[in-house]
Amino acid sequence: MSTLTAKSPILAPPFSLETAIRKVRSAEDGWNSRDPERVSLAYTEDSVWRNRSEFIVGRDAIRKFLAGKWDRELEYRLVKALWAFSENRIAVRFQYEWHNSDGAWFRSYGNEQWEFDERGLMRRREASINDVSILAADRKFFWPAPGPRPADHPGIPEAE
Q: Best label site of 4, 74, 85, 116, fewest CB within 10 Å?
């Protein structure tokens, strides 16, 4: 499959600053869809993940992981920012907000390292994530969800 959607082509390495930024935003938009099938298509069939302390291998396992994640992390909204890139690798920092089934809100902070194959599919993802309890009044990410962050909604401030 060569596209995630008709509007978002898979960008393949080598990355330039412009294409790395577009790749990060495309990933953010995908995850904000909260659609495990759609998101899983960005990864190779044998993609290898480390997500926190969990190790996940393969697109089917990724799809199952994401379905469970979004069943637990309600009203999920994510913002990603490019940190660094090279020919076939991208590093990002991110924040996302969500609440659990008891209504307690969290902001999760993290960093990811991504490695892509020649087609632009992610073959490796390593994510380190920390959750911080927040009050609902301290939320920063407001847009209709699921769905992409609007272009005029702020991203991650440089001071954070």
A: 74
Containing structural domain, residue 34: 3-138
Specify the number of domains making up the chain.
1
25-48 average pLDDT score: 97
CA-atom Rg of the chain in angstroms: 15
pLDDT in tens, 107-139: 999 999 999 999 999 999 999 999 999 999 999
Which two three-digit tokens encode residue 107?
Answer: 């902001």
DSSP bridge partners of 129: 110
Per the confidence metrics, is the pTM higher than 0.90? yes
Tell me how far CA of residue 34 lies from CA of 115, 145, 148, in angstroms: 22, 9, 10
160 occurs within a structural domain? no
Question: How far is residue 105's CA from residue 155's CA, in Å, rounded to a whole number?
Answer: 19
CA atoms within 13 A on the CB side of 104: 8
**What is the β-pairing status of strands 122-134 and 43-51?**
parallel
The residues, ordered by sequence, that sit 6+ positions from 6 with a Cβ below 8 Å of its Cβ are: none
Within-domain flag for 159: no
CATH code: domain of residue 36: 3.10.450.50
